[in-house]
Amino acid sequence: MQTSSLKQAKNPLCYLMVSTFILFLIVLPLAAAEDKNTTDALHQTGKTFAKIAEKASPAVVSINAEKVVTQESPSMREGPFGEPFDPFEDDFFDYFFRRRFPQRRSPQQRLPQQKYRQTAKGSGFIISPDGYVLTNNHVVGDADEVKVTLLDGREFEAKIIGTDPDTEVAVIKIDAKELSFLELDDSDALEVGEWVIAIGNPFGLSNTVTAGIVSAKGRGGLRLTEYEDYIQTDAAINPGNSGGPLLNLDGKVVGINTAIVAYRDYRFNVGIGFAIPGNMAKAVYEQLIETGTVVRGFLGVIIQDITAELAKSFGLKDTRGVLVPEVTKDSAADKAGLKAGDIIVEFNGRPVEKVNVLQSRVAMLKPGTKVEVVVLRDGKRKELTVELGQRPTEGALAAAEPSGALEQLGLTVQELTDELAERLGYEGQSGVVVAGVEPSSIAELAGITPGTLIVEVNRQPIKNIEGFNEAIEKSGKEKTILLLTKKGRYSRYVALILPEK
User: Fold this and answer.
1) DSSP character at residue 78
2) CATH number at residue 73
3) Whole-angstrom Cα distance, residue 221 to residue 261?
4) Per-residue CA distances from 428 to 168, 416, 421, 456, 487 (Å)
5) Residues 442 and 456 in one domain
């Protein structure tokens, strides 16, 4: 019995060993094949990067720009990149132009003004075989002399063809023929998660290649430029990369590397960089080489992003789209039939989600361009055809903007339409409706929220936006602006105290 029992026990063990061995013979080759496929894929990715770098590098240039400034004796600041780069300070040019020869002086010592030479180092890329180069405005914009060095060591004096501070794009030209150049691709087709490659000269290290992915698109609100529609990438970008190309896997340019996010005092790359979209750069480039200046289309509306509170007030499912609190009289938008309270959801055949994106798309088009605009009005889609006007000069825009007092208050308003009055319970009333309130502004601290009806300004009844703006402007010299407001069934006076200038 014991023998029989032992024999029965051995049989399952034998079967298990044989089965495991057979399974091992099957799985091992599959695992090895899978590892080989993974390795091959990685090798192929590396080869792709190498081919792009080899083909694109001859078209990427190093830029050295110089500027003569007049000021007192230079302070103790380190030269060109001894002081880390910070893209979020006020003066782009100052990021790259540093004093060359620091000298010591006591705080009490006042010296006569002298001339000093400042130097900027950046990147650029050749866009045509006859020597046109795209770069950043903050690299060459204020320079007196610009030199371009190619990968093969040749050096050229460059002429500034034109600059556009509003987008940070600049075009320069060198006197050479049959040059290697890069093509611009459709940056709108770029998708989040795609591989991208940056080439430039960080810290003077020529033709440095880095790779990453597209982290996000349509980034704005950075206050770097007037028009912001940035591509965000984690491809390493550092001081000196500015103006260099951001390439897709086809080896074509989808963006111009421009800025990085800095963390406290560490102003080198932390994995968040920004590039100007190639489509925006192309629109600016074409105008700069043609006329040396940029003329932009103009819609003629005041616009704002839609918050969760506004979406609820307008009966929207989400915050996608751009709200129009005001339409400028006789503007392109006014002539096309846009109205205050409209929500722009499509522009020129493409969805619109944020203010900065719409602003950039309008600015990329020339005056006279006809575009299709889709709006939501009273919850229904409405298609309009707009022939863009020409963006007014900065002086004219400043004159048309709300008074400084209104900006200080931190709120925007819109007309009280019949639909809004019915929805918010203001039937038979007159005034303007608060469309948006800036966080931590005077208006927010006073308890004013979107949907509030402003009935009076300084005891004067208000009927429309024009009357509201006039009343606020008249209050510009006063320290206090008195508003009569209504929210739901309750009215109250709100005294808004302007800060001392």
Assistant:
1) -
2) 2.40.10.120
3) 13
4) 49, 10, 8, 15, 14
5) yes
Structural contact between residues 498 and 479, judged by C-beta atoms closer than 8 angstroms: yes
- Which residues contact residue 260 at a Cβ distance below 8 angstroms, ignoring those fewer than 6 apart? 85, 87, 237, 238, 267, 268, 269, 270, 272, 273, 274
Short-list 199, 420, 224, 204, CA closest to 310? 420
Taking Cα atoms as reference points, which of 153, 169, 148 lies closest to residue 242?
169
| Cα 405 to Cα 52: distance, rounded to the nearest angstrom | 54
Residue 306 has pLDDT above 70, yes or no: yes
SS3 state of residue 259: strand
Mark whether 82 and 147 lie in a shared domain. yes
pTM value surpassing 0.85 = no
b/e sequence 31-52, b meaning 16+ C-beta within 10 Å: eeeeeeeeeeeeeeeeebbeeb
Predicted local confidence at residue 28, as pLDDT: 60
| Confidence grade of residue 294 (pLDDT, cut at 50, 70, 90) | very high
Q: Are residues 33 and 100 in the same domain?
A: no
Q: Provide the domain limits for residue 114.
A: 59-290
Q: Are residues 385 and 474 in the same domain?
A: no
Lowest mean pLDDT segment, chosen from 228-237, 262-271, 283-292, 381-390? 262-271
Q: Which two tokens stand for residue 103?
A: 């000298």
Helix/strand/coil for 184: strand
Q: Could you tell me if 177 and 154 are in contact, meaning their C-beta atoms sit under 8 angstroms apart?
A: no
Three-class HEC string of 425-476? CCCCCCCEEEEEECCCCHHHHCCCCCCCEEEEECCEECCCHHHHHHHHHHCC
Kindly report the CATH number assigned to the domain that includes residue 454. Answer: 2.30.42.10
Q: What is the pLDDT of residues 262-289, one digit of tens each?
A: 665 556 778 899 999 999 999 999 999 9
Q: Residues 372, 470: one domain?
A: no
Q: In which residue are the tokens 């918010």 written?
A: 424
- Measured distance CA(466)–CA(475) in Å, rounded: 14
| 240 shares a domain with 389 | no
> Are 144 and 257 in the same domain?
yes
Q: What is d(CA 84, CA 262) in angstroms, rounded to the nearest whole number?
A: 10
The pLDDT of residue 128 is 97
Confidence of residue 189 (pLDDT cuts 50, 70, 90): very high
Statement to judge: residues 104 and 219 lie in one domain: yes
Please identify, among 290, 320, 344, the residue that sits at the C-terminal boundary of a domain. 290
Show which of 235, 268, 290 is a domain's final residue.
290
Looking at the 3D structure of the chain, how many domains does it have? 4
Tokens of 473: 């402007």
